Amino acid sequence: MKKNVLVVAALLLALFNSACGRKGPLREPVPMVPQAVSDFRVVQRGESLIFTWTEPASYLDGTPLGGSFPEIRFMELKDEGISGKKGLDSFMKYSRPLAELSLGKPEVVTNRAVVRLDLEKVTGKNYLFGLRTRGRKGGWSEISNLVSVRPEVLPLPPSGLRAEVEEHQISLSWEPPEIGLDGRPLTERVFYNLYREEAGVFRLLNDQPLTRTRFEDLNFSFGLTYRYLARSLVARGGEYRESADSEILEVKAVDVFPPATPAEVRALSGTDGVTISWLPNRESDLAGYRVYRAKEVAAGEGAAVLLTPENLDVPVFLDGSVEKNTGYVYSICAVDKFGNESPPARVKVKT
Known about the structure:
Layout: H1 2-21, E1 41-45, E2 48-52, E3 69-77, H2 84-94, E4 96-97, E5 107-109, E6 112-116, H3 119-122, E7 126-134, E8 147-149, E9 159-165, E10 170-175, E11 191-198, E12 201-204, E13 214-217, E14 225-236, E15 239-242, E16 249-252, E17 266-270, E18 273-277, E19 286-297, E20 300-301, E21 305-306, E22 316-319, E23 327-336, E24 345-350
Antiparallel strand pairs: 1-2, 2-6, 3-4, 3-7, 5-6, 7-8, 9-10, 10-13, 11-12, 11-14, 14-15, 14-16, 17-18, 18-22, 19-20, 19-21, 19-23, 23-24
Protein name: Fibronectin type III domain protein
InterPro entries: FN3_dom (IPR003961), FN3_sf (IPR036116), Ig-like_fold (IPR013783)
Keywords: Signal
């Protein structure tokens, strides 16, 4: 028994020594840098370049980033451009921070930056832009996708944006631009985009560039306030280029449109009084009906009295407070939820 215990102990010792002597492959530490941005975008809008991107969520090792600091870099291209790994290396070697473009300090907010152009200096030149970020710890990320932009002279924005609130639409119109940013008359066709603010963001309303200086917004609700802006467009190089924003127009959609007059009103005198009925209205904002009554007198009609302090929900009413052998004139009006009252439908009856 003692011999067996010694054998087992010897085997365990051998295994322990073997494990202690084994060495696995060394792992290189993951650099403490953010993931690279992959959706960097640059567009010219009027006299400005607009930069947008999605902020990386984490470092390369998966640690949450918790905010980042962006750096936009640029270089001027003298030929067709650069691409591939060598292109990225060349960009990092020859590019400079955007602030060195001598166009003023970029205005940077979350995932967006704007820089105003001096068109006399940059028009016709081809620039390449990229972006990198760094977190509160560690170094810079790899450079993002690269975007080339050749600044151009674009039209001025539309002017005189105005609106008319109608029963089923908000009709918007504006004046076309006559000159470009350089002050010269426009010689190319101008199109338009119209935007409406939703949840703090201006979203495009039209599916295709507009060819006329008006637009009908059918998707709206009375009682709300809307904000609109328009931009001019020109087609160049197979794509549309936008102007700066027009002035923002604020429109309060007030319902001043009454329902239709109730149709086919009938009055029938009976032992319980006078029963009045009519066809129901079809308006989506209908709040109900009001019934007025006036007595027929020698001089014509007396003053009309409202018989329904609360709006009726159904198109029928029994007036049980009539006098015998008396002529009455009833006026039936439809009312919407904004208090607009239709012209009356009138019917006469004698008890």
